[in-house]
Amino acid sequence: MPKDGGIGASSKRREDVRFLTGAGNYTDDINLRGQAYVYFLRSDVAHGTLNNVDTSAAEGMPGVLKVFTGADFAEVGGIPCGWQVTDRHGQPMQEPPHPVLAQGKVRHVGDPIAAVVAESREQARDAAEAIEVDISDLPAVMDMKEALKEGATKVHDDLTSNLCYDWGFVEENKGAVDEAIKNAAHVTTLELVNNRLVPNAMEPRVAVGDYSRATDDSTLYTTSQNPHVIRLLMGAFVLGIPEHKLRVVAPDVGGGFGSKIYHYAEEAFCTFAAKKLNRPVKWTCSRSEAFISDAHGRDHVTKIELALDADNNFTAVRTETYANMGAYLSTFAPSIPTWLHGTLMAGNYKTPNIYVNVKAVFTNTVPVDAYRGAGRPEATYQLERVIDKAARELGVDPIELRRQNFITEFPYATPVAVEYDTGDYNATMDKLLEIIDKDGFQKRLEESKAKGKLRGLGINCYIEACGIAPSNLVGQLGARAGLYESATVRVNATGGITVMTGSHSHGQGHETSFAQVVADMIGIDESMIEIEHGDTANTPMGMGTYGSRSIAVGGSAMVKATEKIIAKARKIAAHLMEASEADIELKDGQFTVAGTDKSVAWGDVTLAAYVPHNYPLEEIEPGLEETAFYDPANFTYPSGAYACEVEVDPETGKVTIERFAAADDFGNVINPMIVSGQVHGGLAQGIGQALLEQTSYDADGQLLSASYMDYAMPRADDVPFYNVDHSCQTPCTHNPLGVKGCGEAGAIGSPPSVVNAVVDALQRAGHDVTHIDMPLTPSRVWAAMQG
Amino acid sequence: MAQVKMTVNGKPASGEVEGRTLLVDFIRDTLGLTGTHVGCDTSQCGACVVHVDGKAVKACSMFAAEAEGTEVTTIEGMAAEDGTMTPVQQAFQEFHGLQCGFCTPGMVMSAEALLKDNPNPTEAEVREYLKGNICRCTGYHNIVKAILAASGQDVSKIAAE
Ligand code: FES
Ligand code: FES
Known about the structure:
Chain A is α+β, with helices and mostly antiparallel strands. Chain A is built from 19 helices and 28 strands.
């Protein structure tokens, strides 16, 4: 065991010192010699024909180097989509072009029309005001159901309609599901909205393009969760730059939550313009600009039906969802309402018949893609809300109704194409009831009443598919990429280790937790290990960080590479001690010969590898460096049970979160402190979705909630201390660490318990309220109480 | 363009600024002190908090020219010469009060100012004070805990890690 930690220790984060002292290196902190600045002129109308863009006045403004329009990008590719969904009838989805700068039409407020590059940021912005844009307004396509009607205005004139795809899953099960619903003893139906969210990582996006004429090399510094993916998408599909001439660096990144997965137009622009102008070109997004250019999340409208037999066993689930794609297909957008949503509709329950229908729709809004949880929060929300509603209709305890239908035997193949490897849903539920102190609820309810407040308790379960993902499976499902991960473990001559990972940390603490794993495997101190990530020039091709995949997939690659290192080191040790390799044992950084007192230290072996004077050169190469790629056999399936206790002010409808508890099963845990922190953050985002965050467009497609004045981010006084527990552990059976991933759970599991709690509070007070759509603002709750 | 002069982290600092140059841009671009961050353009996120004459100020809500003659402290000026972090900084590390680190400089500068005014705040007072600082990563749990701990209060009873 390493003296300073190892697997299971709450090691303090080594990255913290630089962040706490102002020494972080975020993309906006990078300034290259001679850099110019770009300002994007963006559409202020949601939909219109672009008749003319007159840049002549702007070209003559002080400091302007060049003004670019869509015409400058006629020769390069558009922004690609990384996932092709096949519809119910076997047809590929409709996939419209997505130019870097608008061509012919603008399709959402924020669509970039022109880009001014100038000597200073202010000059670029001033010049942009001098661009004359002539747009003929078209009706804005805003409502998804309206958008699908015959004769509706089309967002993309070349497509047959605004329907991206009409997906059925599993199509062959539809008949059986319809039949089961017809024959059910009881059917509970719920229509709900999963509200559109703006991810709002605190660091706005930044891109700095650089180019060397001497070598013809391009470099892009960017706020990305996956620099290799950006290099591939931008290099191969947009700009035609081969990987060996393109370096992408994502240094310290200030949060992502999905929004920094995608390849964005601004990245391609800065790389392109740097070469055209032979100058570094920098773009720093403002927050107002982020609201209209970062991909949004969620935005589903769903009808769900839950069928039960006379004994309250779930017999079928049928859903119909309208999923907003926005104006263009963002990198992974088509996969979110389908493969990351439909496959989770079994939840924690052994429902035998499930059918999911999803209609993905183009509208004149900002593109929608994955946001923390991505599809799985939408699945969890509808299922856990409808179960709660069913329990109330049937007059049974919502916890018991869940328990009765829990999957209890593993592995378990769901009717929606996935196989859960492990889980223990009763265990997390038991733990939850303990940590929320359910027995004390009645007393707290009385206390609230005495203050004139309503109180409610909401409970739900969740399951997620993480550790994304087996490449051959996602390939069949339409992914245009593999989803393995990589690591190179480079042991230095004096024993220190540098690990280059294809994962990327933007808050998750990889530099600490990844080092814990390697230290533990070898038995040396964590301080001897350094984790490098984020630069395509020194890391192996990796797919990056999202879908709670870093430790499950990236960590597994690192384990595989470290195993190779240990295997080779044992050979060297055997040679040094003139023993048989089979007798070599490694413990606490010492190699020993079993049954003898012979030993060599880790540092002796590593030195021998690089100074191979006494070394088995005929058998093995000098040096000690190994790379591994790991492609998981299955998703991982974290699960858990969450509880929320609210107080509602009957006068104003204001909801206060009084208590929140989360009992998660993440399998094995590397760093409990970091894992708790991940859950805390997810909970605040889920509570934000449930109570505060509303992305509002008006009928003309203007984004009304486009700043922190109008978009209610959760603040410190909106949330309580959370009670989180991850002591229930059923390790994943198919990755070497037995880990499941913890990054998204909080955001997936929390919205239904908040809404269940508010409905509970209102019903206890005698209000006949069965549902309120998120966010549960005071006005919505108050209106619901008025009937 | 006009010349401004101030003291930043104990050292004289000066530069040419436009009338519209914000203090935060002067700090980041002219002085190269990039620890102070910009997270919004409506003065609401708190990523840019610095101390001006000892008071916490959002550096995006003030022109550089207005800071003429003041004493400014940024996050880079908090730790001791030898790198020893302040009790607040140490508590943020100890209690995992940061994840991506982007809000962190502003959080630390606000927390330092809070504890100067109110050395023994309640949980509610900490949460109230932090209203002007948005963090998207931590859910605030460990930030509040770290600040209470930095004030010398026992936080061992606070739920979980
Ligand atoms: S940048 Fe100053 S408050 Fe947001
Ligand atoms: S730590 Fe990332 S925003 Fe606070």
